[in-house]
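agent> Task received from the user: take the single chain below, predict its 3D structure, and emit structure tokens. No templates, no multimer pairing.
agent> Plan: (1) validate residues, (2) run structure prediction, (3) serialize to tokens, (4) report one or two observations.
agent> Step 1 OK, no nonstandard residues flagged.
tool_call: predict_structure(input=
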Amino acid sequence: MLNRIHFLGFLSGIVLGWTYGWAGPSGCGTVLGTIPILFAWSVVAKVLGRAFADQHKWPPIIIAAFGHGLLLLFFCVVIDRAIRRLVADEATVRHLGFAFIVTLYAGVLFLVWPLQDCP
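)
tool_result: status=success, residues=119
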């Protein structure tokens, strides 16, 4: 069952993916940010054609943001289950775990593992 922490993780992933897609660096971003956008562009190009995928930026960004949301949802579920099994005072630790995983994901999305050096 999807609880509040999982739902907030999913929404946080969508917001982070959406932000990366619109405000992120073009052509020299991070692996975690660029690979989902390239995959989403490939899907849009297969379904609607290459010309449409080249001319419209928003469909790949929406698909990639949804993918980021699903990935962060998965991480939140894993961390939440581990906290529930291992920690006695789980209420506080669950919120701290959520904040930690979202911050870590945002750091990896925007800062870690660049594809190439940007000028």
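agent> Step 4: summary for the user.
The first helix runs from residue 4 to 23.
agent> Done.
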